[in-house]
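Same chain as my last thread, 977 residues:
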Amino acid sequence: MKLRLTSHQVRWATITPVAIAFVVVLLGTFVALQQREHEDLDQSNRHRLGELESSYQATLGQESIVLKEFVDFIVQGDSLSSAFLARDRSELNRRIQPSFTRLRDQDRVTHLSFITPQGECFLRAQMPDRFGDRIHRRTLEQAVTEQRSISGVELGKFGSLALRVVHPWVRNGEVIGYVEIGKDLDGILPIMRHALALEPAIFVQKRFLSREPWLEGQRAVGFGGQWSQFHDHVLVSGDLLRVEEPVLDQLRSSGLTDLEIHRFIVGVGNATLGGGIIPLRDAAGIRVGSLLGYWDATPLVAAHHRVWAHVLGVSGLLSLAILTFLWFYLGSVQTRLRHARSALRETIEIQQVNARSLMVNERELNREVRARRHAESELKQQLQELADARRATLNVMEDIDEARRTAVESKLEIERSMAEAERLRREAVEASKSKSEFLANMSHEIRTPMNGVLGMTELLQETELSSQQQEYLNVITTSGEALLNIINDILDFSKIEAGKMELECVEFSLHDLVEGVCDSMAVNAQSKGLELLVRIQPDVPPRTMGDSGKLRQVLINLIGNALKFTYFGEVRIDVDRIGEAEGKQKLRFSVQDTGIGIPPEREASLFDAFSQADSSTTRRFGGTGLGLTISRRIVDLMNGEIGLNSELGQGSEFWFTGEFDSVDGAAEATDPGSGRRESIERLLIATPNLSVAAWLKNRFRPYAAEIAVAVDGESVIEAASGAEDGSCPWDLLLIDSDLDGSASGEIGSWMRSLPESGRPRAILAKPISQGHNASADDESLYDVVVHKPIRIEKLLDAALCPPSAEPQETVEESTGPEDSASEFTEEVTEELSILLVDDNLVNRKVGQGMLKKFGAKATVAVNGLDAVMILERIRFDVVLMDIQMPELDGYAATLRIRDPESTVLDHDVPVIAMTANAMEGDREKCLGAGMDSYVAKPVKLDKLKEALAEVLDPDRPPRPSFDQFHHPSQVAEPVGE
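reply #2:
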């Protein structure tokens, strides 16, 4: 059944998709116009804010020039300088008031002050009754330092922002004081309002203000400020009555203190407002507030709406015209098609009659032709099939022969390749095993004589020697330890090259590790007159998980290099947290120095093995050139990076990053000063090092209302003697013992002169290398004595905790290895009987000498078999066991001691491995063979004492059962790549 469509149905079916397409195009045009409107509004907003910031900066520059001209005119007056030099405040006020009144009325000048060279206000023209206080402003400090006119924005005590110009007052080539002139920023708002056709307003952050003084200042100038209108800022200039409520809602919700630049567009009834804020910074570069500006964007929106109307109207009319044309055009086309269809139908009927007659004749003829062609085709096909079958049979036979030959050759080649691969694998295994055995033997053979050299040297140092003998002995000790460090570097590098260095993951205190490394290197730094600074940012977690030993090794390498190549100045260690993801903390460590720097052409190869910045035969600094290479490999294992920033003659910065696992409950770092029970009103920091002063000032800023810095003893006494009653105006003094000259004696004399009730709390910071020096008599005047490098947590504890009834001693904590064995005294060792097992005569003498120092009774055995035989007859408290020995090595001897079926009297006797096997995993091998502790040669007295205390501790963990012990040779060594 055929479905015939009417003319109207055909036209509707054609026009409907076209109409839908037109609607889609109109909607797309509307969306594009709306997007363009938003872009134009945002661009216009951005441009207006740029004009606002440019106008603000330009106005400040112009006003600074005008104010400087006023100051130049003032300081030229001889009568004013005479009155100032005579310190006649009333005469100076009488002469300056007419000029100040004229400047205030004509040019809106609001501040005019005369300041003494010591930084005290002598006269305020705007408030003559307020004088004598010390001024702490960035503009004044910079003018005093640079001795030239300085201008900048300063935040006043009552919350007003003012442009201030400070000019040195010079007479006869000498600075007699300073003149400060200023103008409140209120004066620039009308200029920007008329120039830019927008409404400006100035806000100040509440954290720089106190509520009551601010309200008092607002009442004094007749302005009814509202403190609680915004949660983090207050309006200090401008009129909020002009500001629409939606704009205020934007300000309340955005939080001005959290934004550098913020733009907004809001609707107010039928109007549209655009605006935003830009940051306001004072002379010190600190953001103290924000500048608001907003403007009427309604004309721009209206212009866009007119464009919308024109475009959409024209598009609609054009679409309607096209649809109407299609409707009538389709009707005419359908009429012509109907006439053509009728004529074509008649012609087809005639052709069909003729075709039927021709088809009958053609059918008979074609039948005969097809029969002949079919016969010929079948004959040719049969012949072709026979020929193809013959050729295919020949090709198949040739392919079979070729495949057989190829398979035989491939099999032989595979067998040869497998044999070669097996040979190479065996050679690689043997080479890796030989290399490991060589490293272990080299470590053992080198450390054995080194144990004799350093052990005997340490024992010899305990005897009475002349000064010359002690000097020679110190040279031997230093040279031996330097040789041992070189050996350790080479062995570490060999372990890295062999792929046998791995990181452990244990919890440790990051702060203690970094500060402990600096403490251990402080004497070296202070002997060269260098300042060693440690700056750990507050957001760095106090505890973390990782390989503390490898981290300490990298820090020691970098700090040691910095101290080696620095002659004066400082070495600073910074630790920052730069990221956190998936339970891992990413930390950045930086070691900066003021040393000789590194040439650019040497920086690229500095981290290569055996490479040094100076490799000539005349080089001044020693070393293997492996320290940085080892550090780079360790940092790679920490999933971090290491790099260098250096300038020749200016110093260098070595930095590296690493990933460390977070510790549960310590993911967020806590500021060392948080939770303290007291705060400081006024703090005076006395140090000649400006970097140290800046760091301490920044760390104490959250806990002290006022902080000042003095660079010498005279400045300390002058700053601390400002009270009229003779008492000290400062609550806490932080004194650096490195102050120049006789500063410590002068400060001590001044503090003795103070009455007990008026004496401030005082903290003395001195180098750890000074000990009890000549100035120690004055240390009783200080409440606390801290050692440098300063540990900021201990310093904050001393400064912020309530003072105790009696003066404290020094604030320090022991980090030496002796702590774990602090209760292991000579009275204990005198009661011990120890079996010393070693096949080397020198090592036996070293061990006996050390044990004699402890007062212990030692019996010797020359090998493991001799030791087992002695233990079968005598009981001992401890066995010191060497590893590589003839007859019976230390592993096998320990296994016989632990074997319950052996005839040893005491199977549980503590065994300490005292061996030159110091490669990676040697400690684990000793413990796996049943030993209780491990001491590597060369043996140190403190390490041996610590090991004895460990194995004799009654609370030590129980030893595993005998069936868990094994000789290292019974464990298959893994085959490396």
